[in-house]
Every structure is written in C-alpha cells, then in structure tokens.
Amino acid sequence: MGSASRRLVVVSLVGCGLLVGPSLAGCGKGHTTDDAGPGMVDASMPVDAGPMMVDSGPIPPPCPIEGALSLPMDEVSGRVSGMSANPSTTCTPHSGAGGPEHLYSLHVDEHTGVRLTATSTAETVLAVRTACDDPLSELACSSPEALRLPGADTVVNTILEPGDYFVLVDVYAFGVGGDYTVALETFDAAPNGTCASATPVVDGTVLMGESTEGAGTATVVCDGVPPSEGELLWYSITMPTLTRLTVLGTGLFDLHVSIRPTPYTETTLSTSCDDMSAGTVVPGPTSDDSTSAPLALPFAFDFFGDAVTHYSVSSNGIAQLWPSSRAAGSADYNNIPLPSPGAPLGLVAPLWDDLVPGMGASVRTLVSGTGSSRRLTVEWSNWMYISDGRGALLTFQAKLFETTGVIEFHYCSMGTADPEYHAGASATVGLQNLTGTDGVLHSFDTPASVSVTTALRFTPAP
Fold first, then answer.
1. Residues facing residue 248 across a β-bridge
2. What is the pLDDT of residues 77-118, one digit of tens each?
3. H helix or E strand, kind and range, residue 419
4. Cα(227)–Cα(220) distance, integer angstroms
C-alpha cells in the first residue's frame, strides 16, 4: 500500500494530559501545527496505513466537559445521574464517594475571589481543580459537613491566580442522581489569599489590623503545609536552621512574628525500656484523673532554660516539672496541641490522654546511674484509654538525664488490637515550658505517631 500524509495535533493541556488527534473537543482549545508556539510539536509526518493505523476520528478526552463558566457572574444547570467516571474529591475520600459528576472549565485572568454555590436535589460536592481528572490538584473542595443536609446549598469560596481551572459538580453517593444549579460570583480577594501570593514577613514583623475579609477557603497543600479548614491568609518567611517561628494573631487581627532558637532538637533512637521492678510506686495517680503531690527531683535539672527542682505525675500520661515544691499538679484529661497556656504547665507528655488504670496499673519511678550521669525514669504501667473497650494495656516511660537535660520517651507496650489508635490517635506527645508560651509538639491526635520500636529524644539547644 502507499502512504498518506496526515497532520496530527500534539498539545499539552492542564488537566488533560498529552493528546494526539485532530479533535480536542471537550478538553480545552488546542493548537494546530500552523500556530505552534513555544513548546509545541509539529507532528506532520507520513503515517503508515498498515497495522499501525491512526484513527481519523476524534480521540475522546479523559474529561468530558459539560460547558464553561465565565467571570464575573454566571450560572449553569444540569442533571447528574449514573456512575462516576472521575476519581473522588479530596473532601469525600472514603469509599462511599464518587457518584456521577459534571465538569465545567473556568478561565481566570487575574487574582480573583470566586464563590460557587450549588443548589441541588441531591447531596452535592463542589471542587475546583487545575487538572480535570486528578483530585490531588484540587485547590478547594466543599466541606463534608454540608453533606449531612441533603438539599442544602453547597458553597465553595476560593481565591484563584490567573490560569485555567475545572469546576467539578459531584454527587456524594454511587448511582444517585439529581438536578443542580451552580451559581458563580466573584468577590474582592485578599492580596495574600493564596499560597502563591503570600505576604513576606521577617523576625519582628508586626502587622496591625489584619482581617480575613476577602479570604477564601482552600484544601491545597502549600510548601508542605497540610490542608486547613476555615478562611485562610498566607504569609511567607525565610528561617535560619535550628530556629522556630512563633506567629501570634489577636483580634481581627494584629500579627506579631518572632524567630527564636529551637529549645529542643527532636531525634529518634531504638526503644530501651528500663526494668522498673526495683522502682518506687508513686502515691496519688492510682485512679481516673488523679495526680501526685510534688516530689523532689534527685538532681538539678534545666527545662526550657529554667531550673526545676520538683515534679508531679498524673494518671493521664503526663509529668510536670516545677521550680519549687509549692505547686499543684494537673489531672486534666482533655489533651490539646502545644504550646498553650491552657495545657498543664511544665509539661512532659509521653502520652497525654484520658487514661484509666488497668489490672495491676501503677506509676513507678527509678533513679539509675552514678555521679553526674544519673537518670530519672517515670513509668506508667498497665494503663488503658478510657474510651477503648478492648482493654489494651499501655506501658510507657519518660526519662530525664542529669547534666545534659535530655528527655526521652520510650514506649514498651501499646496494645495490638488497633495499633494506629493505641499509638497516639487521641493523644498529645511533647513538651511545654513553665508558662505555656513555648513547647515542642511531636504529635497531636495522630494515629501511629509513637511506636514500641522507636523512642523519642529531646535534646536542649546549646
């Protein structure tokens, strides 16, 4: 057979991948080889009509597009029914999500606030993506809280930089359909309403009268910062190594920025639980939400740069360090992130949670070593989560080292029925200073954040 010449189109479109074919209907506007710009490929070539045939018909795009939304105001309507052809959204990640969906293209010419409101007879999800078939490219997704009210409006407020986007209208459940209307309107966007437009700040920056008016909500990860809920403003800062950033916002709001040396460096080591058979039982923490009286430390110890002389122990997986014996330990079971003045002060928290004693439960202390190389070990043995009906027994230790000021957490037994839950899913792990203004947070309500094979070491800054 002879050969025939055919012009093909090769174009890379955001969210539509690399497409080859004479038709790109439904996935944006392509360019032919006559107007190929930078990065375009001239695909004019002889095509063998033999076994390697090129279909002269259109190649279906990965994302059929229902239509386009236009700024500053627009409205579209439709009915979604049948099964999903697109991966679930980030705000409906579980297996029940992924019902039918429609996609609309959206072009933005400048930094713009966009509000999308969906009214539907079904439980509807709205999402904004840069890639039509990739949930990980989502910049905003409606809160799953809205899904608890079928028929209620679903709203997304987001701020978009110039570019091309896709709006996804999804139905929460498989195979469920419904009529919908999506209304688009714009609002005056805060200048630092996106990660890309973050306001630069430095040590000592004070910004008075900041406000979240004009802020959007987002699910995007910004430079490794996990997704957050609520109205977001973004600030950027360059920090030296081994320093920490403290940002305090008050009112509507004044922003104060300070950079300080990191008080402790956190590292890991292999678990090595001390034999506590010769230890001393601590009186006091023997029942739910109980604590000991202040006890004298066996050696001088510095904590966040402050000299401490006494400690107390709570049944809820914490010890507290004190500058004198005139102190009252906390039995607070409601763990929160650190640092916070609302958390127990002088906090040493290997596993701050609501714990109750199991069979043979105790808190013991043991002083080991000689000279100026002694260590104090506090062990919580055979304690349980109050909300855990499986009776998993937890044993863990906190160790304080003389001279170096090092603190270690060792996890000896954390239950096996549900390893992720038992290993930190509802606990706070970390340290906090005597005033609640500085701390080191290892984890807060994080599954599998501690391990029976790995201990945590906190070394004071030089």
1. 256
2. 988 765 555 556 666 554 344 456 789 999 999 999 999 998
3. helix 419-422
4. 6
Q: Tell me: the pLDDT tens digits for 210-264?
A: 888 888 765 555 655 555 556 778 888 888 877 777 665 655 788 888 888 889 9
Angstrom distance (rounded) from CA 122 to CA 120: 5
Domain boundaries, the chain: 4-47, 67-187, 195-261, 265-460
Chain-centre distance of CA 350, in angstroms?
Answer: 22
Taking a C-beta distance cutoff of 8 angstroms, is the pair 385, 424 a contact? no
Buried b (16+ CB within 10 A) or exposed e, 11-20: bebbbbeebe
Q: How far is CA 217 from CA 72, 182, 214, 316, 386, in A?
A: 19, 18, 10, 36, 36
What residue type is assigned to position 218 of the chain? Answer: A
Burial class (CB in 10 A: 0-12, 13-18, 19+), 86: buried
The CA-CA-CA angle for residues 213, 115, 235, to 5°, reads 45
Angle (nearest 5°) at CA 390 between 396 and 363: 25
Q: What pLDDT digit, counting tens, does each position of 121-148 carry?
A: 777 788 899 998 888 888 888 754 544 4
Q: Residue 248 and residue 260: Cα distance in Å, rounded?
A: 14
Query: Nearest 10 degrees: CA dihedral of 41, 45, 48, 52?
Result: 0
CATH topology of domain 67-187: Jelly Rolls (2.60.120)
With vertex at residue 144, the alpha carbon angle to CA 139 and CA 148, rounded to the nearest 5 degrees, is: 155
Question: Nearest-5° angle of CA 117, CA 121, CA 126?
Answer: 35
Question: How far apart, in whole angstroms, are the C-alpha atoms of residue 161 and residue 179?
Answer: 30
DSSP 314: B
State residue 367 phi and psi, 5-degree precision.
Answer: -105, 125
Q: Which amino acid is at 319?
A: A
261 by Cβ neighbours in 10 Å (0-12 / 13-18 / 19+) ranks as exposed
User: Is 319 in contact with 326 (CB distance < 8 Å)?
Assistant: no
Residues 311, 295 contacting (CB under 8 angstroms)? yes
Cα–Cα distance list, 411 to 270, 273, 404 (Å): 10, 7, 22
Q: Output the 3-class SS for 58-89.
A: CCCCCCCCCEEECCCEEEEEEEECCCCCCCCC
Q: Which amino acid is at 19?
A: L
| Distance separating alpha carbons of residues 409 and 349, to the nearest angstrom | 9
